[in-house]
Description:
This protein has 240 residues and is an alpha+beta fold. It folds into 2 domains: 38-158, no CATH class; 168-240. The chain is built from 8 helices and 7 strands. The strands form 2 sheets. Strands 4-5-6-7 form a 4-stranded antiparallel beta sheet, with helices on one face. Strands 1-2-3 form a 3-stranded antiparallel beta sheet. The chain is elongated, with a radius of gyration of 23 Å. The relative contact order is 0.12. Mean pLDDT is 77; it is low at 1-25 and 145-149.
Amino acid sequence: MKQVVIICLLCTLFSVSCKSSFGDDEKYVYNEEEVWAAGPCKNASICTDEICLLYQQVWKELFIEGHGLSEDYFDNHIEICGTSMEIRCGTTEFIIHYKMKVDWAIMYDRDWMRVRIDSVSPYAPPLLVPPYTYLTKDEIKKIQIYKIWLIYFMIEEYGFKLPAYEKLKFDSYGSAMNYLAKKANVSRLKFNRITIDPHRNAWILYTITEYDQESHKCIWAELNLNTGETVIEKGSCLID
C-alpha cells in the first residue's frame, strides 16, 4: 500500500516524467503545411474575370445541389482558394481548388467541370451547342453522365453524398493521433493526410510511420474520425 502511495505522489510531483506518451496531446500539432494536398491550394490564385466568377457560382450551386447541402453549411465549411480556366482535349475546363473544414480537421481538394466544347473529340462529350459556346448550368448538368466531372462522378458512381458533419468524435488532432498510436501500439505516428472516404461517408485520418529503421518496417494506420474505427497494417516500407 505504501508503494502505491509513493508512486502516486511521484507522479503528482513529476507529472511530466510519469505522463503516458499516449496522453500527451500537445506533442502533436496540426500543421496545414504538412497536408499533402495543401500545395496547390496554398499557391493557387482566384481568377477574377467575368467568366471565372460566373462558373465559380455555377460550381457552388451544383456542388450544394449534388450533395444536398445548405448554403450556410457550404459557406461555413468550404473555402475556395484557387480557380482557373484550362483548355484540354478539345474542351475548356473550369478548375477549382478548395479547402474543407469540419471541427479541427482540414481537407484540401480540387474539382473541375467542362464549360465549353471547342471541337469534336473522342475525349469530349457530344456537342449540345455550337462549338466555342459556353455552356449553361443546365447544359453542364446534362453532360455529367459522361463521367467528366468529379462531383457527379462521385455521386453517380459511388452514391456518395458529402456528409454534413459539424463535429468529429475526437476533440483535437492530438487526441485523435494519440488514440490511433495507442491502438497501433507505438509511441508516435507520422501524419500523412486527412480525406473523406466516399465508401464510408466519413472523415479518415491516415498515417505512415517507420517503426524499425534497420529492417525498414512501416506501420500504416488509419482512423475514422466519425466512428473511432481503426485499420492498422504493418509491412516493409515503400522505398523510392
